[in-house]
Design brief:
The chain is mainly α. Helix content is 65%, strand content 3%. It comes from Streptomyces misionensis.
């Protein structure tokens, strides 16, 4: 079988697997977040932190709890790295430097998982498991909690209450993420991923020297790394490393884990708002963009320009031969259209236009299907904007799910979509204008600019993948990417929760003959168009200087 049909069959198999779990998992998550019952272990946790899980919160109270939890998480992870040299299981590694500790703590707490270090040469077992792996769970659960708060804003009326942050956090971790990750970890171990707490092994003689391999609890971290759309790898090669991703089957499994919760949350949204069709409309929007990007990526990477590509059957530079061009293309699109950031190939080695596809996927706001939780609330904000545009076209007050979209709602939605582009473009411009930061780029010209643009696009969108080639372990990039991650994660959440509070306080608007039917294909097309046009107008000049200039050269 040729590489192109193999890539198409992998895509179809992935769609089939996602379709099988869509209804049961989406419905189960709706029951999890709407249940009034607390498990015994959950009650223990609530007592330990002194929280009342049944106390409803307004959006400012919800935000304060979220920010307090995230601040404590950053401090804990920072101190854990700074004290690594004194901890057991450190594998002899020294404590992490202050700038890198801050960057890494912010990275994992914001669900970005940007890594400016080599994991197998920097982090010991305690930091990897008690620090990074724990944040893989709870940072994902925070994103799901914010999404549920926005969904309640649409489903509730004449109230300012959006649920309870502590209850949403604990339930998302214990009832959704933990059981699925446990099963996935067992499957990964069965397929060859490692899971141990062994030390450093010195193996073989290579060019007069030996090679050192680390052990570690890799499979368990790999599972939640993908399921929680985190992306931080145990090893520097990330999911291209055979200890993390041994076979083509595990590669497809990891792509499935990346996509499954973000796609299934649209079912959860439909169930909780009382209209499954609304969930299907959002799913269709996500699916259309994801399939389009996958097809575009395969087209760019299978394009046979020159004898080397013709002989290899595609652009194989920087890709694992066990995955091929098809598997690597599907993975690259999945990881950049979500907030995952895991890589099974080097995006810097993709064709010029292929690298541009990965960047554009993040620039969309990672909403197709997006990160765990963040993808759903991101596309719902875009739906609010699309409804407003439609209302302007027909000359009536826009409505979405029975809620009027007025000046306050549009201001909050506009602020949401402006935050990330501002961070990306301002930080990229500063890095290129100052004398020292451009020296971190490995390549000159358009490709070097793409390395810097990709880094801040990845950081501000809380993706975490790297273009490769950029030396980001400098004081400038450690500090600036950390600021981009913090602002790119929490400032949009402020606007989302404020929007949820505004919607929840409204009275429902009755459906009339003039109401835009947002569950119809017409609205799906309008939403897809709004997403692509807004992103294109925002980022086209920057893309023209980087991947487009390189691809057309």
């Amino acid at each position: 079988m040729g590489p192109v049909p193999a890539g198409v069959l992998q895509t179809l198999a992935l769609i089939g697997a996602l379709a099988l779990v869509y209804v049961p998992l989406g419905t189960y998550m709706a029951r999890v977040y709407s249940s009034r019952r607390h498990l015994r272990v959950e009650r223990w946790l609530y007592r330990g932190i002194g929280a009342d899980p049944d106390a409803e919160m307004t959006w400012p109270a919800y935000l304060r709890a979220l920010l307090a939890f995230s601040a404590v998480s950053v401090l804990f992870l920072y101190l854990l790295q700074r004290l690594q040299g004194f901890l057991p299981g450190s594998l002899g590694f020294a404590s992490v430097s202050p700038a890198q500790s801050f960057n890494t703590a912010v990275s994992f707490v914001t669900n970005t998982n940007w890594q400016s270090y080599s994991g197998e040469q920097t982090m010991g077992h305690v930091v990897q498991t008690a620090g990074l792996a724990v944040q893989n769970f709870v940072s994902a659960a925070v994103g799901m909690a914010v999404a549920m708060a926005l969904v309640r804003g649409f489903s509730r009326s004449r109230t300012g209450e959006l649920g309870n942050f502590w209850s949403d956090l604990v339930r998302g971790t214990l009832r959704v993420l933990l059981p699925i990750a446990a099963v996935a970890a067992v499957v990964l171990v069965a397929c060859g991923a490692i899971q141990n707490f062994s030390g450093i092994h010195e193996v073989g003689q290579f060019m007069g020297g030996s090679q050192q391999w680390n052990g570690g609890a890799v499979a368990s971290q790999e599972a939640i790394k993908e399921l929680g759309t985190n992306g931080g790898g145990y090893f520097n090669a990330n999911s291209a490393h055979p200890f993390e991703n041994p076979t083509p089957f595990t590669n497809l499994l990891e792509i499935f884990l990346i996509l499954v919760i973000p796609f299934c949350l649209t079912r959860t949204f439909g169930v909780l708002t009382g209209s499954a069709r609304q969930g299907y409309a959002i799913l269709a929007t996500m699916g259309t963009i994801w399939l389009g990007f996958t097809a575009l990526m395969m087209a760019t990477e299978f394009a046979h320009h020159g004898p080397a590509l013709q002989a290899a059957g595609g652009a194989l530079e920087g890709k694992e031969v066990r995955f091929g061009v098809g598997g690597s293309s599907i993975f690259a699109v999945a990881t950049t259209l979500t907030s995952t950031g895991a890589v099974d190939s080097f995006h810097s080695s993709f064709t010029g236009l292929g690298g541009g596809v990965t960047m554009l996927g993040m620039m969309l706001g990672e909403i197709a299907p997006g990160g765990v939780g963040s993808g759903l609330y991101g596309i719902l904000v875009m739906a609010v904007i699309a409804v407003f545009i439609a209302g302007l076209m027909v000359g009536r007050t826009p409505e979405y799910l029975g809620k009027k979209i007025g000046a306050r709602e549009m201001k909050l939605a506009a602020c949401y979509i402006l935050v990330t582009p501002a961070l990306v473009l301002v930080f990229t411009a500063a890095s290129m204008a100052l004398p020292t930061p451009p020296d971190s780029a490995l390549n000159p010209g358009a490709h070097g600019f793409s390395e810097v643009l990709y880094a801040f696009t990845s950081a501000a969108n809380n993706n975490g993948s790297a273009f490769a080639g950029l030396n980001a372990n400098t004081d400038w990039f450690n500090t600036m990417t950390a600021l981009a991650m913090l602002l790119g994660r929490f400032v949009p959440m402020v606007f989302v929760l404020a929007l949820a509070g505004s919607l929840a306080g409204q009275r429902p608007v009755p459906v009339t003959a003039g109401t835009l039917r947002t569950e119809k294909p017409l609205f799906t097309g309008l939403l897809v168009g709004a997403i692509l046009i807004i992103t294109g107008l925002t980022y086209f000049p920057a893309l023209a200087l980087g991947p487009l200039a390189e691809g057309l050269a």
